Amino acid sequence: MNWDDLLLMRHELQLLAVILIVTCAEIYLSGRDKSRIIPLSLALFGIHMAAGWLWPVEGELFGGMYRTNGLIHLMKSILDVGVFIVILQAGGWARKQLAPENRVSEFFLLIWSSLLGMYYMVSAGDLLMVFLGLELSTLPVAALAAYEVLKMRSAEAGIKFILTAGLASAVTLMGISLLYGSTGTFVLADLGKQMQGNSLEALGFIFFFAGVAFKISLVPFHFWTPDVYEGAPVSVAAYLSVISKGAAVFILMILLMGFAPLLTDLWVNVLYLLAILTMTIGNLFALRQRNLKRLLAYSAVAQAGFIMLGFMSSQQDGKASIIYFMLVYLFSNLAAFGVVQTIEMHTGKEDIGDYEGLYRTNPRLSLVMLLALFSLAGIPPLAGFFGKFFLFMTVASAGYYLLLTIAVINTVISLYYYLLIVRAMFLRKSDNPLPLVTSDGWMRAGLVICVAGIVALGVASGVYDAIYALCAHL
Amino acid sequence: MGTEAIIVFFIAAVVLVGGGMIASKLLAPTSTNPQKLEPYECGIPTQGPTHVQFKVGYYLFAILFLLFDVEMIFLVPWAVVMKNIGLTGLISAIIFILILGLGLLYAWKKKALIWE
């Protein structure tokens, strides 16, 4: 092993260094004011994120257990941006609520540990490595979901998450063992060669897929989503809806499009059905929600269905449209969650009814929310439109016109409940609207980044082309 | 290897396990007496309800113990091949131990080692 090999694992090592430095700071500051850890954490992670974008490298380590290339590098960098926005938005909350209880640094450490697991999962060249990464990325999130220790709902969210996640992991492992039993290898590159397309492999694949689908919250596996999102702290819900889902989508993409060519017929059909179910059920349930966190949870389920559209083509356009959509979805969803978090932290309100007349008292927050919701719905000048457009193009070019029709109908349904929030904020008058909320500087910075992302990605056409070029070799 | 093999596998699994249990139920001689319901030799009969809550501190100690238990599992094979892997191996092991030590230090500073 020499230094060039270490450079391949740059993302992981950098993040590990950040984790260790913050742990040392926590130990050093024990018994003193911990709120100083917040700017330190943000600065360190900011440096990590910026450095992460540089010099993509390609290669393998540890006999193929770990591999990386330009596309995997891009995936990790996208996850970095998401985590950076999440912790930026959580800064004020951490100072106000966590610092007095002496639980600041653990929040960051748990999020980063989970992110480290995702790095290893995305970079895995081996099914066991995938499983290890999946576990490392799931366990800290259960602790995070129960992070508001004094709230019953938060504890409930934690328990629900860890029980369902435990079951999902068991099912995944069962799938891996069946795949191993039928092919005799864990190595992803050999897996594709050893496969004969028999039914034992299909069974193993379906079990494995169920575990990953749990993390993406596709429909038969989505029941935990609204309860956990509602109970968990808002930044954790944001993390679950974007980062955790994104990593699972990426690993599914790498596995399906890269390594399981013989099972293509099987998974295209499975995903075809799941995409329809996920979009439709997610949207229909979202229609009736009054609590904004639950509404965003069901909207996240529906968006997962849209992401599945990109899997209909295993060509370059499918991959590129998924990654581009994830990037767009990241900015839009985090902006929406950021506004909900601001309002919730200062007033404790999170129902649609409470948002009535918000524009009169909080015009800027309302405008951010408007942009985020329009982008999620896919209204033209914003990034969300192009994200959906490329996904629909993928489906159309693969020739699945029925699926395309259902997806377009679902877009219209989703527009209804997104506009419901917009109507409450802008058109309704309320006798006692929410007071003027002044968000803290970190939250404001996070929202500005999100809005910049939503607007810029809609205008800059070069981004999609760059991603498309990277997708040539997976 | 096809669908038939899997079906046969499942049926065989069910028949073997279920059949064994049913057969032992039917064939084994049974005799019941009150002493059979008491705890086995080791220890005295319990007093009061046995489903009691106990301090979460036990878990904390158990986890800290587990940390070093696992560390030992990794260090024993390392010690066996240490001469062959040279300086790189030594440095890797030191980093590994330092990270675990940091964890212990963290638990220490968080007063996890004080039994209240």
> What is the end-to-end distance of chain B?
60 Å
Q: Quick one: which chains have the greatest interface?
A: A-B, 13 and 12 residues
Write down the overall mean pLDDT of chain A. Answer: 87
Written as H for each helix and E for each strand, in order along the chain, the element string of chain B is: HHH
Total strands of chain B? 0
Throw out a few tags for this protein.
heterodimer; A: 474 residues; mainly alpha; two-stranded antiparallel ribbon; 20 helices; 2 strands; B: 116 residues; Methane Monooxygenase Hydroxylase, Chain G, domain 1; 3 helices; 66% helix; 0% strand
How does this model look, in words?
The complex is a heterodimer of chains A (474) and B (116). Chain A is mainly α and 474 residues long. The longest helix of chain A is centred in the middle third of the chain and has 32 residues, at 152-183. Chain A has one domain. Chain A is 77% helix and 1% strand. Chain A is built from 20 helices and two strands. Chain B has one domain (3-109): Up-down Bundle (Methane Monooxygenase Hydroxylase, Chain G, domain 1), CATH 1.20.58. Classes of the chains: A mainly alpha (474), B mainly alpha (116). At the A-B interface, helix 2 and helix 9 of A face helix 1 and helix 3 of B.
